Amino acid sequence: MTDLPMPQNPAAAQPAQKSSLLSQDDRTRRRNAAEKRFRSYGAAAIGLALAALVVLMITIISAGSGAFRQTYLSIPVALNAEQLDPEGNRDPAEMSKVLTLRYGSVLDSALAAAVENTGIQIEGLSDREIKGLISREAAAQVRNRVLADPELVGQTIELDVLVNGRVDGYFKGRVTMASAARDANTSPEQLMLADALAERGMLVTRFNWNFVTNPDASDQRPEAAGVGVAILGSLYMMLVVLFLAVPIGVAASIYLEEFAPKNRWTDIIEVNISNLAAVPSIVFGILGLAAFINFAGLPQSAPIVGGLVLTLMTLPTIIISTRAALKAVPPSIRDAALGVGASRMQSVFHHVLPLAMPGILTGTIIGLAQALGETAPLLLIGMVAFVREFPGAPPEGLFDPASALPVQVYNWTQRADPAFIERASGAIIVLLVFLLCMNLLAIWLRRRFERRW
Amino acid sequence: MKTAKFTVSALAIVAASAVAAQAREQIQISGSSTVLPYATIVAEAFGENTDYRTPVIESGGTGAGLQKFCEGVGTNTIDIANASRQIREGELAACQGNGVTEIMEVRIGYDGIVFASSANGPDFAFTPADWFNALSAKVVVDGAVADNSATNWSQVNPDLPDQEILAFVPGTKHGTREVFEEKVILAGCEESGALEVFTAELGEDAAHEACMTLRTDGRAVDIDGDYTETLARIDSSPNGIGVFGLAFYENNTDKLSVGTISGVTPSTETIASGEYPVSRPLFIYVKKAHFEQVDGLKEFVEFFVSDDLAGPDGPLAEYGLVSDPELADIQAAVADETVMQ
């Protein structure tokens, strides 16, 4: 079919020649410029996001890394028998009547003696400032040690005690001589004493595992606070979510995707599931309070209730991602299985589900990671609380009060003592590490089990 | 079949929950964020020094705490409500309606409310009348009620520094707000003579109301969060003056400088002697009905008000609580399990 009229006039052929490969016409140039602009917008967007991330990480790490180091003072403590065991019979039951306050005074005299022995002379240093050097946690530490081994009474033991949060802050650069001069809780003289003790090697700042293992502490002892209970609480909740949301979510999606008839009812259910995925999490908290605590009578502040609430919150995410994973398995696999005589259930459980597994696992882990960082629903079920007692081992431990990592961050940002701000950032780092591990696991599982056709 | 196993174990967990609703080993406390630090100090010492478990303490404000407290009696309700003000008639009625009848009111001490500005700014010497004239919606100008148009502290009182008026006051859900309104704004209203003018124009009830209504043009900012939020606001706008609890201020003396009221500097001593006017009692409300059901509840309350903790040399006083001069009476009332009438 070459009956197109050939151009007769060479002048008329001129525009066709213009769009040669060598010289671009206006329109092509405009199109190319638009593409370049679009690419630079994209690069700028990514650059902006990266810059924000870098600023965030730098802020958190610079504020929070201090929580992983802590200053300790090692001093000899003479355990005065008259004060600690007034009856003199070394009976732990009798001795437990002596409160930590009495141990505090034993420590005070030990500290005064230790400072005197070193021969440090600082002008204007008061007894109160010497006493204030160590943490109030130290008294509990000595008491526990003595009650565990009553024979220690009357001896002199070498002890590593935490120092006060302000002095600790001085070694981490949070407190300066200038701020100490205005501060009612420390003084430049106290910091000079701390400096002198550090020179003699009695005061050392070292890595602080206790931050990860200790429970929360009261406002008077920020130096002793840790995220132990919160980690355990978060772990328990994740266990509950894993054991409830995964089976229920996967079963629901298999039924909806493979067995359910496609009619108005399943359409309504589908719309509802998508809707639930976008419901604000606080709504699930209100539901949890009404259904699990007020109606079912479950205890307050317990990881089981937190886990149940987070299960409700995570279910839609898991169902949606599982259905997508099931949909992605080619129909030919099902047809082949049915063709060789498998029942529909066999075709699903032997062929479709294993192939959809990587997608299901990824969706599940992303749902869990989302649940791990959730605070709002926990507010209403009493988990945003000061919890110092470790919950027991599961399953009973699921009913003991516990805290959660994001809750711990929230709690610490409300405390008066500035040392808690460092702790809060430290807890954020721990939470980020957990999330990173979960996401890496998701990527690894996807790589490991992925099938290609 | 794995799915079936999972489902069975999941059901087992749910079924196990039915067992958990009897006696409780751990005390549960909720309420005022002002009382929270004191409660955590006592709880920590209680857990350390006794064989009982450390109580669990939530914060969230006096009103929210008392609401939870009044939900009913039983181990899935809280045992103690922390309060930075006395329980109201309506709350008491709600309690009684839900069967919470035997309530013990325990005063744990006094707390001062202080006015602090950025440590880098000028010092302030306030009177309650200054606060009223600076923050109330209606003031008296030349003997007549007028809208408050003051923009600068020096317009309110020539002795105050020439600084823009910007105050961060606790939001209405805090018990501190009520004390601020009554002991500062209302007192200032009376002191400045504005109350008489208001009463003449509006009648007695409306006059009190008019005194305590704060201006809404952005000079008085309600802070619904905690004192840490107020502190952060002062960091970002150094002209602001914040309302804090004494204990919070004492923990942050390096960042804040405190204003005097009628020439008195707030401290535990001036509050205990009654010289510093803006203080209020702090309470814990205890359900007597839970003494049987919750391990160590009575021991905890006794421990809270013991001389070792709540006394003038105890850790609570060290943190900023003003010890109650009538502590011995309160200890006796707790020992006798005296309930509110």
Compact overview of the structure:
Chain B: Keywords: Signal. Chain A is mainly α and 453 residues long. Chain A has helices at residues 14-18, 26-64, 81-84, 92-95, 100-118, 127-131, 137-148, 165-171, 177-182, 188-199, 210-213, 228-259, 264-277, 281-295, 303-327, 331-339, 344-372, 376-380, 405-413, 419-449, and strands at 69-78, 156-162, 203-207, 385-386.
Word description of this protein:
Chain A: One of its GO terms (molecular function) is phosphate transmembrane transporter activity. Chain A: Its main location: membrane. The complex is a heterodimer of chains A (453) and B (341). Helix content of chain A is 63%, strand content 5%. Chain A has 20 helices and 4 strands. Chain A has helices at residues 14-18, 26-64, 81-84, 92-95, 100-118, 127-131, 137-148, 165-171, 177-182, 188-199, 210-213, 228-259, 264-277, 281-295, 303-327, 331-339, 344-372, 376-380, 405-413, 419-449, and strands at 69-78, 156-162, 203-207, 385-386. The two termini of chain A are 43 Å apart. Chain A has 453 residues and is mainly alpha-helical. Chain A has 2 domains: 67-208, no CATH class; 228-449, Orthogonal Bundle (MetI-like fold). In chain A, helix 2 (26-64) crosses helix 20, helix 12 (228-259) packs parallel to helix 15 and helix 12 (228-259) packs antiparallel against helix 17. Chain B has 341 residues and is an alpha/beta fold. In chain B, strands 1, 2, 3, 4, 8, 9, 10, 11 and 13 form a 9-stranded mixed β-sheet that branches. The radius of gyration of chain B is 23 Å and the shape is globular. Chain B contains 16 helices and 13 strands. At the A-B interface, helix 9, helix 12 and strand 4 of A face helix 1, helix 2, strand 2, helix 11 and helix 15 of B. Strand 4 of chain A pairs antiparallel with strand 2 (56-58) of chain B, so a sheet runs across the interface.
